[in-house]
Design brief:
B: two-stranded antiparallel ribbon; 12 helices
């Protein structure tokens, strides 16, 4: 509970200070929040269910491409029907996960990691090669963000607040989910799947539902990601995006939800902000990976005793 | 779409598969012995190519560059395994993320040392010709690739099936705990296998540098394809890696030639299908 209050407090301070930040920093903050949603969806799988997904970029990609295609080819989603696209993005993410889950949930541990990686690569392959639909390597350039009545998302600050709203909604929804009886049984599956099965839980179904929900939030992140960047390309769906999401969770602390946001902050600012300052930013990112894994197995949250280890 | 087209595409597919075998055999051995999903495997492939370029720059000898690059990268792999991977013990997720960290570090180091240009490793003139067989022009280099992969495949098979070290490796793959119980130093086996994997990847990087080129980003381009091979063939199985590389090599070539729009999909979709039917891959064991 304290954790949630601190999170809301920090986000409150950030949102008050945001108007005074430079345009670049505002964009980065919005990126942090969008990737934070994706990281939380990974955390639902990794931290609560014990499923290390290495293909979460697939759902982000499905949501993002859907948004871009609807907007550029059919002009849908640029007015009040933006909400329709949000719903469609979540549904498409969930549907993709529902299909992929049939293959993935059978496996566990390292095998789950490999299968989700393979599934993620399928989506990347389609995005990269299916020129007529996805624009191939060049991707799809969006023509401006939605405008809901007087509220124009084209203003970066406005869009930041919109993204913040979506982040908070996702956070509370997921928080509710993991503290529900369903969420508690997911943790039970993480700890001792066999015991849960003996107790009469349908563990496959539990994991499957968690997988689909994670896909839905991945899709939501995709919708926002498309509008944030104004372009959707195969590089959004690439393996590195999935790996980053996983790292964000481990870096921040898995099984905490908040950890995903902390991890996203560190990774985005290292990747994007430091890159504008120095040439050797990637050494720092690599070193952060290595050092976290070696010395901070419980992630940054473990420093505040909130982590699960 | 005559017979010639099919023959040439098959030949190209098989020779590409030969290259994939070099990359994937190490990956599958590492997975089998250490249960590590090694995401820095592509980086070893790339670094192998770069080191070979440097050796060729100073000595001009491609024949010398091949073993020197492979050995140098094997030593690098050895160091990473000893200092960083070993202390983690058995924790797949942390090991995976650690190898990603190294993949990024190596990527940046390669960019700083060798720059961002797309470089080509020029094979010796004797291998750059092509011969005509039954009206088909076949590059000698691709024939050499197939021969080399076959030779290495046979050597690996022999080492695994007929030597003491191979028996120790197989025992570790089957049941590491039991292997330790009968006195096998599994830590040394892991060290050996990781170095061997890096060696093979670097060898592939030098060989592949002649037609794929050597450039930043190549590491993460070849990695998923190597994983496709390993997943299809069965993780930890050498024979599986051989079958998998042929399948992927052919699927990739025919996919790109026949259905360019869904080429990568035609590569990864069969993999998903195989996994759906047999989660451990064609020749993998539980």
């Amino acid at each position: 509970m304290k954790r949630i209050l601190i999170l809301v407090g920090i986000l409150g301070i950030v949102s008050v200070l945001a108007p005074f930040a430079g345009p670049f920093v505002i964009l980065l903050l919005a990126q942090v929040l969008v990737l934070g949603i994706m990281a939380m969806s990974v955390d639902l799988l990794l931290g609560y269910t014990g499923l290390p997904s290495l293909g979460q970029a697939a759902y982000l990609g499905v949501g993002a491409y859907l948004t871009a295609i609807l907007a550029t080819k059919y002009g849908i989603g640029l007015g009040w029907d933006f909400w329709l696209v949000v719903a469609a993005g979540m549904l498409s993410g969930a549907a993709t996960a529902a299909f992929f889950g049939l293959f993935a949930i059978r496996a566990s541990g390292v095998y789950f990691l490999m299968i989700t990686l393979a599934l993620g690569m399928c989506v990347w392959g389609l995005a990269y090669r299916w020129n007529s639909l996805t624009g191939g390597d060049n991707g799809i350039n969006m023509r401006g963000r939605p405008k809901l009545g007087d509220l124009a998302f084209s203003n970066d600050l406005t869009f930041f607040y919109v993204v913040l709203g979506f982040f908070l909604a996702s956070f509370f929804a997921l928080q509710l989910l993991v503290s529900s009886p369903f969420g508690r049984s997911l943790v039970g599956i993480r700890e001792r799947e066999l015991r849960m099965r003996i107790l009469g839980y349908n563990t496959w179904l539990h994991k499957y539902i968690a997988f689909v929900i994670a896909g839905a939030f991945g899709g939501l992140a995709g919708v926002l990601w498309a509008h944030l960047n104004g372009i959707v390309s195969p590089s959004d769906v690439i393996l590195t995006t999935s790996v980053d999401a996983l790292l964000m969770v481990v870096l921040g602390g898995s099984g905490t939800l908040v950890g995903g946001l902390i991890g996203a902050t560190v990774v985005v600012f290292l990747r994007e902000y430091l890159a504008t300052l120095v040439q050797w930013w990637q050494y720092v990112l690599g070193a952060v990976y290595v050092l976290t894994i070696l010395y901070l197995p419980g992630g940054i949250m473990a420093l505040f005793k909130g982590g699960r280890r | 779409m005559d017979a010639k087209f099919w023959l040439i595409q098959t030949f190209n597919g098989v020779s590409y598969g030969a290259l994939l075998f070099l990359l994937a055999s190490g990956l599958t051995l590492i997975f089998g012995v250490m249960r590590i999903v090694n995401l820095s495997h592509g980086a070893y492939f790339l670094l192998g190519g770069y080191v070979a370029l440097t050796v060729m720059k100073y000595t001009g000898s491609w024949l010398l560059a091949l073993p020197v690059a492979a050995l140098a990268i094997a030593v690098l792999g050895l160091i990473v395994e000893r200092i960083f991977l070993r202390p983690l013990g058995f924790d797949p997720l942390r090991q995976v993320l650690l190898t990603v960290g190294f993949a990024f570090l190596f990527q940046q180091a390669a960019l700083d040392i060798w720059g961002g240009d797309n470089l080509i490793i020029q094979p010796p003139p004797a291998l750059s010709k092509s011969i005509v067989v039954g009206g088909l022009h076949l590059p000698v280099y691709r024939i050499f690739m197939i021969a080399l992969a076959a030779a290495i495949g046979l050597a690996l098979w022999f080492a695994m099936e007929r030597t003491r070290m191979g028996a120790m490796v197989r025992a570790t793959v089957d049941d590491a705990e039991m292997a330790r119980g009968v006195g096998i130093d599994t830590s040394r086996v892991s060290m050996f296998i990781f170095a061997l994997g890096a060696f093979l990847a670097a060898l592939g990087g030098v060989i592949g540098g002649a037609f794929l080129g050597v450039y930043p980003g190549l590491d993460f381009e070849v990695l998923p394809i190597a994983f496709a091979v390993v997943i299809i063939g069965g993780m930890g199985s050498l024979a599986g890696a051989a079958i998998g590389s042929m399948l992927v090599g052919l699927a990739d070539n025919f996919g790109k030639a026949l259905f360019p729009e869904v080429a990568y999909f035609s590569l990864y979709a069969p993999m998903v299908l195989i996994l759906a039917m047999k989660p451990t891959g064609l020749l993998g064991r539980e």
